[in-house]
Design a protein that fits this description.
The structure holds two protein chains of two kinds. Chain A is built from four helices and no strands. Chain A is an all-alpha fold. Chain A has a single domain, classed as Orthogonal Bundle (Non-ribosomal Peptide Synthetase Peptidyl Carrier Protein, Chain A), CATH 1.10.1200. The model of chain A has no long low-confidence stretch (mean pLDDT 87). The model of chain B has no long low-confidence stretch (mean pLDDT 92). Chain B folds into three domains: 132 residues, Rossmann fold (3-Layer(aba) Sandwich); 229 residues, Rossmann fold (3-Layer(aba) Sandwich), CATH 3.40.50; 98 residues, ANL, C-terminal domain (GMP Synthetase, Chain A, domain 3). The chains are: A mainly alpha, B alpha/beta. Chains A and B meet through helix 2 of A and helix 9 of B.
Chain lengths: 81, 522
């Protein structure tokens, strides 16, 4: 598992699953699985903006970029390249 | 058949299935379901529920997010003569027992999203007849109740054709109020309550079979339910998008599906304005006929920004209601958005709204009293709670607990909640006035003002707000407010956060906010 994926997974598990990852897969939709709600998405956005040297535009707030660990990792890699 | 001839809720679906069988009634991701398909599945479900022994007045609990299965279940339960009780799809294990104990449901229909909570809650003791699960992830072995997989169950042929004698006064739904404080109360709505309110809403919004509604509010919330019923009543279409947490995807789909209506609560619009590319899509929303807002007071700042951001042809309807009123009590005609600033308009067709004093007499224009609504839409009462029912229902109608007044032309205004008034020093303070002043600063997306118990003051005012950008700080906000409010109305603190906690409908969760503040004392 990549370092980036580890980092995102830890953030999600620590902040939204109270440290219990209980079968959270990398492809699971945060919303459909009830892991993160709309306030949580904003927390995720703030976290990414604090940790990485780019800001997230409003039109980038879409599930394809942010609704699973895999999507977040791909999005960050794309933005950082 | 005229719309007003429909006397039971599921007649709306049946009529549209006869008039527009091949028309797409529901769009959700890759699914496009026609009226004929939905009606036929709902018939099938009604028969299958009958086979399970469900009969008139039995409660069937629905724990589903917005989806095709929800719609089929909702109308299927009603066709079986039973009572649909939708609960939040984010229900926690510790909350389930309370509902099952007081509802004594025959059947639960749920999705895999709530499966974990159902498993953890242990529903064995509650005498459930059957649990129907969509795409279950766990293995269920129960001798206490039957377990069915939705996908198999719905494709079976039910034997029991329902011939249940229900009439318009029969109980149709129990909808739990948000319960921002205290224990949730089950609002009992009859077929007549919902049918009359649905017809009234269709009339004033001038809905037709050309209307396509974007639904981001949950169907288990009374406003979401009303979006479904109104559009099925006229043979329109609903587009379900459960991903409002990603507002850009919603705006994009509104353009792609050419929706004609959008509805939300205040926070929905705050996020659309400040966390979505709504302004960039202005030119793509040429079909958007109107936006409607209900679910509590929305500051004028947001209304004004919304008016300036939406296409000129898109009308804005400000509406007011309550679960106890099947959804809707009043609406403001769009042309009065500016000249009746902050008004909730006038009563909808078939409803009377009065402002009454403590002596149960109507107060004169300009004077503040309690908002009391009457009409065929007013609930039958609270489920198994006679005392609570008697506190709010009497011969005058439903006492909303909201304080308001009427101007000389009969336009209504709500100024706050009876039980939200704060006492700061010797002053009675309405938090809504301070929230409005903070919003007017133009610096924040949303805010809530609460009273923190204080030995000297009684209540100490604390605001929590989401700033529009990272440069905004507490003193910026307070100095703007100081231009509008007297010193004693200024919050002692403004705590800045990324987003305010919400309940599922999107309304701000005041008790969670209060917990947050008490955990953040200096």
């Amino acid at each position: 598992m990549s370092e980036l994926k580890d980092k995102i997974r830890s953030f999600v598990v620590d902040n939204f699953l109270f440290g219990n990852d209980d079968g959270l897969t990398d492809g699971a939709s945060f919303l459909e699985e009830g892991i993160i709600d709309s306030t949580g998405i904003l927390e995720l956005v703030s976290y990414i903006e604090e940790e990485f040297p780019f800001s997230i535009e409003d039109e980038e707030l879409i599930p394809e970029n942010l609704d699973s660990i895999n999507n977040v990792v791909n999005y960050i890699e794309k933005k950082s390249s | 058949m005229n719309l007003n001839d429909q006397i039971l809720i599921h007649h709306f679906l049946e009529k549209s299935a006869r008039d527009f069988p091949e028309k797409v009634a529901l769009i959700h991701e890759d699914i496009r379901a026609t009226y004929a398909q939905i009606n036929s599945k709902a018939d099938q479900l009604a028969c299958l529920l009958g086979d399970l022994g469900v009969t008139k007045g039995d409660r069937v609990v629905l724990i589903l997010e917005n989806c095709l299965e929800y719609v089929v279940s909702y109308y299927g339960i009603l066709k079986a003569g039973a009572v649909a009780v939708p609960l939040s799809s984010d229900i926690k294990p510790e909350g389930i027992g309370f509902f099952l104990k007081e509802l004594e449901p025959k059947v639960i229909i749920a999705s895999n999203r709530s499966e974990r909570a159902l498993k953890a809650a242990d529903i064995t003791p509650y005498n459930i007849g059957a649990l129907i699960l969509r795409s279950p992830k766990f293995k269920w072995d129960s001798t206490a109740f039957s377990v069915f997989v939705w996908e198999d169950f719905i494709n079976e042929k039910g034997n029991f054709a329902p011939d249940i004698k229900i009439d318009e006064s029969s109980l149709a739904c129990i909808i739990y109020t948000s319960g921002s404080t205290g224990i949730p109360k089950g609002v009992m709505l009859s077929h007549k309550n919902i049918v009359s309110n649905t017809n009234s809403i269709c009339e004033y919004l001038r809905l037709t079979n050309k209307d396509i509604q974007m639904v981001v509010l949950p169907f288990f919330y009374v406003m979401g339910k009303s979006l479904l019923n109104t559009h099925f009543a006229v043979g329109g279409s609903v587009v379900i998008n459960n991903k409002f947490a990603f507002p850009a995807s919603v705006v994009k789909q509104m353009a792609v599906e050419q929706v004609t209506g959008f509805s939300g609560v205040p926070s929905t619009y705050a996020y659309l304005l400040h966390r979505s590319p709504l302004a960039d899509y202005r030119k793509s929303l040429d079909s958007l006929r109107y936006c409607s807002q209900a679910g509590g007071h929305m500051s004028f700042q947001i209304k004004d920004e919304l008016r300036k951001t939406l296409p000129a042809h898109t009308e804005i309807y400000i509406m007011y209601g309550a679960t106890e009123a099947s959804a809707r009590l009043t609406y403001l005609e769009p042309e009065h958005l500016y000249d009746r600033k902050d008004s909730i308009g006038k009563a909808i067709p078939g409803v009377t709204v009065r402002i009454m004093g403590a002596d149960n007499k109507e107060v004169s224009p300009g004077r503040i009293g309690e908002v009391v609504g009457a009409g065929a839409n007013i609930m039958q009462g609270y489920w198994k709670d006679k005392q609570a029912t008697e506190r709010v229902l009497d011969k005058y109608g439903y006492h909303t607990g909201d304080l308001g007044y009427q101007d000389k032309e009969g336009f209504l205004y709500v100024v706050g909640r009876k039980d939200n008034l704060l006492k700061v020093g010797g002053h009675r303070i309405n938090p809504q006035e301070i929230e409005d002043a903070i919003m007017e600063s133009g610096l924040v997306i949303e805010t809530v003002v609460l009273g923190l118990p204080d030995e000297l003051l009684g209540d100490k005012l604390v605001a929590i707000a989401t700033p529009k950008d990272g440069d905004v700080n507490e003193s910026h906000i307070l100095s703007k407010c100081a231009q509008k409010l007297p010193r004693y109305k200024l919050p002692g603190r403004v705590i800045l956060v990324k987003g305010l906690p919400k309940i599922n409908s999107g309304k701000i969760n005041r008790s969670k906010c209060l917990e947050f503040i008490t955990g953040n004392k200096d």
